[in-house]
Amino acid sequence: MRAMLIDDHPVVVETMKALVMRTLRPTVLYVEETVEGAIRRARQEKKFDLVVLDLTLPGVDAIAKLRAAASDTSIVVLSAFDDPNTIHAALRAGAQCFIKKTLSLEAIEAALRLVVSGEIYVPSCARGYMPPLPLDCRSRAETCLLTGRQKEVLQKLAHGSANRAIARELNISTSTVKQHTRAIFHVLGVASRTAAVSEGIRRGLISFLD
Fold this sequence. Notes:
Arc Repressor Mutant, subunit A; 210 residues; 2 domains; Rossmann fold; alpha/beta
């Protein structure tokens, strides 16, 4: 696993470094003080499994920039605030996990494990709440919760490919395919491959022609 922390506060950095190393045991862990530096790093290294970003450093707009630079990366947001509008703005921008800094270390560990397994972590205060969106933003808000890799897996599901075939074609393990599939089901609110494909087409995520 390759991970990166983006924060300019030494205490937060050291705490999160220790937590990520203990919880996820990444083979590589970079630290960047700025989003600009993180984007350069992402473009150089090409592949990151996890990025942890302090939201107070750059703001929500930075999430979309990171997502564009590292489409397959799971983005975890740290914040001192947990109001639902901020949380859902972060999710719409492409984050998979929103962690308030006041959470216990055990809770943060659990959230990190969840997002690395392909799930989305949302604080209980924001679950079931979504602020109204303009009509021209709704499709984008719905689709951004799937990573680039998850969309690829969903497209393979639309072709009827089995897990082993998907793993071979995407050069990933079958367990990773299963993790992505569970995450797709969770995000789309479905319980089967057929339903996931139908919902993916409805949202414009995939096409049978691809």
